[in-house]
Design a protein that fits this description.
This protein is of the alpha+beta class. It has 5 helices and 6 strands. Strands 1-2-6-3-4-5 form a 6-stranded antiparallel β-sheet, covered by helices on one side. The longest helix has 20 residues, at 9-28.
Length: 176
């Protein structure tokens, strides 16, 4: 469907990956329904650019409350937990389940596209500018759960490894 609207096959694959990971997190960790939204818009600046805005949300427990069910992360404050959740092998599940790669992959895709990425969970929001520290924001709504907003450009994606995504998150954690 995206190809019919002028998007590349590559962005379609990455969007499918993002939807799959974030929807799985909402259902697995949020333990409730998941809401998905996708909107296309075109901007003309030295040519024609396709953008795709993606929204994924659940109205359940939120990242901090979910992560604190794992004793390994139970003592983290809300800001640290929110950023830590994006590191590889971090999950509310125990280490024996070998989970916790999905949010790292979403960060890697966003880094590779220089996309806009914002996460809201509980009473805080954070946006990830790829060239500076995380920007902490008031959430747009006061509902429980977690909300993700990503704006991707239909441009070539640079492959970013989980190791580089982890290093990016580590850098942000050092600013807290």
């Amino acid at each position: 469907m995206l190809i019919r609207h002028g998007f590349s096959e590559e962005i379609g694959a990455r969007i499918g990956w993002i939807f799959g990971e974030l929807a799985d997190n909402a259902l697995t960790h949020g333990k409730g329904p998941c809401y998905l939204m996708c909107h296309r818009f075109i901007a003309a600046k030295k040519g024609k650019f396709n953008f795709l805005a993606i929204g994924v949300a659940d109205m359940e427990v939120g990242i901090h409350n979910s992560l604190r069910t794992n004793p390994k992360y139970s003592q983290l404050d809300a800001k640290t937990a929110l950023l830590t959740a994006f590191k590889s092998n971090v999950s509310s599940w125990g280490d024996e389940f070998k989970r916790g790669k999905g949010l790292t992959d979403v960060i890697a895709i966003s880094l590779g596209n220089y996309s806009y990425f914002r996460v809201e969970s509980g009473d805080m929001g954070v946006s990830f500018p790829w060239d500076s520290a995380a920007k902490w924001r008031q959430p747009m709504s006061s509902v429980s759960g977690t909300r993700y907003s990503i704006v991707l450009t239909d441009a070539e994606f640079k492959d970013v490894s989980r190791k580089k995504a982890d290093a990016f998150i580590e850098k942000l954690l050092r600013t807290l």
